[in-house]
Amino acid sequence: MATTAPAAEQKTHADAHHGHAGHHEHPAFLAHHFDTPEQQFDSGKLGIWVFLVTEVLFFSGLFVAYAIFRSLRPEVFEYASQFLNTKLGAINTGVLLFSSLTMAWAVRAAQMEQHKLLVGLLAATLGCAAIFLGVKTIEYSHKWDLGLLPAAWYSYDPNAPHPEGLSPYLFWLCLVPGLILIGLCLWYGLAILRKKTFQAQVSAPLITVAACFFVGVGLGMLLESEAESHAGDHASHGAAHAAADHDGGHAVAAEEGGHEPLVHPVLGPLPGVASSGETEVLQRLASDQLNSGLRSELSALASQAELSSSPVDNAPPVGGLPTISRPEINPNRTDYAGVFFGIYYFMTGLHALHIIGGIIALTWLLVRAVRKDFLRQYFGPVDYVGLYWHLVDLIWIYLFPLLYLIGGPAGS
Amino acid sequence: MATVTSTPDLLHDTLPDGSAPVKDSYLSNSRGFISWAFTLDHKRIGVMYLVGVMSAFFLGGVLALGIRWHLWAPEGALLMQTDAVGEATSNNDLYNQFFTLHGAIMVFLFIIPSIPAALGNFLVPVMLGAKDVAFPRLNLCSFYLWVGGAVFFLLALLTNGLDTGWTFYTPYSTTTDTSVIAATFGAFVLGFSSIFTGLNFIVTVNTMRPPGMTWFRMPLFLWATYSTSIIQVLATPVLGITLLLLIAERVIHIGIFDPAYNGDPVTFQHFFWFYSHPAVYIMILPALGIISELISVHSHKGIFGYRFIALSSVAIALLSFLVWAHHMFTSGMSEVATVIFSALTFTVSVPTAIKMFNWLATLYKGSISLNTPMCYALAFMFLFAIGGLTGLFLGTLSTDLHLHDTYFVVAHFHYVMMGGTLVAFLGGLFHWWPKMTGKMFNDLWGRISALVVFVGFNLTFFPQFIMGSRGMPRRYATYDPEFQYLHQWSTIGAFLLGVGLLIAAVVLFASLWRGRRAPMNPWGGATLEWHCSSPPPYYNFARPPIVGDPYNFDTVKYDPRIDGYYLTEPDHFADEDDHH
Hints:
The complex is a heterodimer.
Chain A: H1 5-21, H2 37-72, H3 74-81, H4 86-111, H5 115-146, H6 168-193, H7 197-231, H8 237-245, H9 249-256, H10 277-286, H11 292-309, H12 311-314, H13 334-370, H14 380-404
Chain B: H1 33-37, H2 42-70, E1 80-82, E2 88-90, H3 92-128, H4 136-158, H5 172-175, H6 180-207, H7 220-251, H8 265-299, H9 306-319, H10 335-363, H11 372-395, H12 397-403, H13 407-437, H14 443-469, H15 484-514, E3 556-559, E4 564-567, H16 571-578
Antiparallel strand pairs in B: 1-2, 3-4
């Protein structure tokens, strides 16, 4: 009984359909519970917009976390951000912007029933997504090699020699895309041999897409090694990295901060404070008249120090007053730079997961586009996935400046 | 399909519809496990949700009884262990796991999905006059996400347990070796189930309304569900990301919440309550919607202040996002922040009071039938009033410093969550049970169950107000002997409450076998779900329903032959019907 049930239900659907809406024109693409294609399209459109709202709120928690920790430790963010390769980030930004163009164009092609163009544009969008992931793979594996990891595992040592040769992480990260590429090639070959045109038409563009991933990897390696050779003049790798894109002066000083004795909690205005990375950044930020919060914090610290250095306070109190201290920090310490990299990996990683989700959705569209499913009255799915893709692009537009482009120019 | 009709003019000569056997209802149009497991019918999905959430409620309830039993004696009575000397002492770790899982299961697996997902799934399209929700596949996906989340909770329960409290506060949750990851991942998955349900309802209400169903002709339950959906869609993603960050904190130590890596635990509290305070309104708003329906139908009187009740639901939904930090008055926020959040907290009482007074005005001079659903609705009004008013003590800064983390808080939110949501859920379940199953339950025993639940509930939780105001802290496995008699009253009440719920369950189950066939409209409601047969056909309406005023009871007439009501439609509706 149970095995025949779905068929029975199907039949009932059909019956019910004829029973009450038989005089309606009900095209194949129109789901049974909608009355008109317009109603179906509007529902889908509203649905995807509401979904995008949830996505924005999903990421909003991360942006808030970013804001909290950057405002707590601006100098750490500036220091750690120098390890991100701006060129690679910029390339990825361009790639994603271009993919948004091809996506928007694909929606147009679907509306105009230009089936071949639609397949091409979807493949182009997919290719951009693959290049993005390829570049990201290089960025990740390179940082893992250096030990630039989240807080508990952060093991970056500025004086350690730079690891030579190909990263072992790179191999593992490329394994799955490599297998997919091989699988797609096999599929294509089989489809040609067995004369399955549809399968060949689907697998051929997908092979190009998978190959694009390795284009991205190659591009990343090229630019990453360029940064390396530029840095080759410097003695230590840490300085090299700091200098790769920005002025490295204060970062070097900050790294050495760990070897100095602890200095007085008050920053800047007091004499006898070591010139450390933190104070430099804070002073530069405080020199901006608009930065009233930091200015008042610094002046409060100064007056606090003044009070605590007066003779009355220096006398040992009866109950033992708690001492106020703000230890000099070394931004390279695990618990400071590590938090930046925790946030970096979480934000970019979640974004990369969304790219992968987009790739799956776009592949599904590609298959349907080859099948010529999309018509003048029915292009909803292309439109919905397009909206999602633009959002993923938009999130990157925010991530790039917030993570890669902080600090730099003002100091140099 | 054609056997089921909701033709209004059929009623005058022959026996009204609903007394004839329904051959092709949504329950009987296909059979077998597969036809349920892969159904896209919102009514079947609603029924599956109902079974699921009631199982979760049973599990959470058993844990609750375990807690109360343990608190019978100051040194503990149930969850014991033998110490080195060989004496029985309270097993505090086990107690921690009991109250944590009780809270987590009740909140995430029961209360949040209970009304929107179980009753809402069944009712929203029918009340709206639609054939189904906008995205039936997504709806089924929501249900299986719920099942998946429940499986993770069970995993946590069966492996190492969970002892963080349902709030998963850091830094404890990042250091304890119990199954935090399984439970938080379960809650993450349940969050997506909730988001997709909310998304589905928002789109359904916006695009699936039939002609004539304007916004202000929607039943108030739909307004409440719509407002709930807004909260689900806007707040739940923040919980999702918070729980992901917590998992990442435990697995890869990103250092955001963990003070060992310079993170900030209070940030977790802000993130958590940014979802979980609005979630309180996810729990209570649909209950308020149910009560609006029940009060009006069983008073046989149009709802008083329809627009005020409708818009106050939306107002509650929006205000719910502005008050989260009142859970954190003692967490070390700045004074300015606490004062602002305290003031905002009081504003929530305005739309809530609007609802309360409108219900009272509806009851006034109504022709009240004390059916089982109405008994639950009246119990709700009493309990929810106490729960709401004691919230004012907790929203006030000076008193909250004294009452924070005491049994006063426990009693307060049980009066709102259980006395409010659960009682309304039961009222709604009894109200729509004939529609869902096509069977009438024994009304006398139903009323008895309402009475026992009401008495048992007050006996359980009222003493906790007294204990809390005298300083009994929550979440302790042992306590000072001076509180013993209050704890014992509370434990007796809890078991009485269990008996009441058991009676309710037996009444409902017995109706499936022994209940008489339900008429189309047993209570005399005017909303659209009473226009279709009991249980409804697969497509809800054999022909497009005629939409009128949902609270106009002039057209609803009693027919003693079927012991139910039928709808007499004004003539111009019949004319309009001809055009279809």
